[in-house]
Write a structure and sequence with these properties.
Structural class: alpha+beta
Distance between the termini: 50 Å
Number of strands: 8
Radius of gyration: 19 Å
CATH topology: Protein Transport Mog1p, Chain A
CATH superfamily: TM1622-like
CATH class: Alpha Beta
Shape: globular
Length: 159
């Protein structure tokens, strides 16, 4: 009897552990940041299609979100891709930065590493905007915005 009960408790704890690991903490995008209004959020299959199109190939992500902000003469985009696990997200982030910095045809330049609240952020310029790529747990973020706005967008996510 006691042995069966212990097995039941272990099963329940294991079930909670699995549920906790599989839970996805979707980012919450602020409605307005520094005069920019959130005008569209794409999720689900449409987001995955857009993320794959951005990379020019199918990449291994569990889910994705894209937030579009717009203001007077200014636009910003936040791309979020969720990997299956933190290790995959770390590897994907490092691989993306390595490929971008090694490419002779990359439209990006002025790469720097900065840190905000313990989060390593890869900063660079290109295509008329500033860009930040960073990882929080299983989520990889790419923010594209004007230099004056990008820090506020980043702080809204990182804290």
């Amino acid at each position: 009897m006691l042995h069966g009960m212990r097995r039941g408790i272990v099963f329940i704890l294991f079930s909670f552990f699995l549920l906790g690991c599989n839970q996805s903490s979707s980012p919450v995008f602020q409605e307005e940041i520094r005069g920019l209004k959130l005008v569209q959020v794409i999720t689900g299959k449409d987001a995955l299609l857009a993320i794959n199109k951005l990379h020019g190939k199918k990449i291994n992500v569990a889910s994705g979100m894209i937030a579009f902000y717009q203001g007077e003469g200014e636009k910003a985009i936040i791309w979020v891709s969720e990997s299956a696990c933190t290790d995959d997200a770390m590897q994907q982030t490092e691989s993306m930065i390595e490929r971008m910095t090694a490419s002779k045809r990359s439209p990006f330049s002025d790469y720097k590493e900065i840190e905000l609240n313990g989060v390593k952020i890869y900063s660079f310029k290109g295509m008329g905007q500033k860009h930040y790529i960073f990882r929080i747990s299983k989520d990889i973020y790419w923010i594209s915005a004007n230099p004056g706005t990008i820090d506020e967008l980043c702080k809204s996510i990182v804290g």
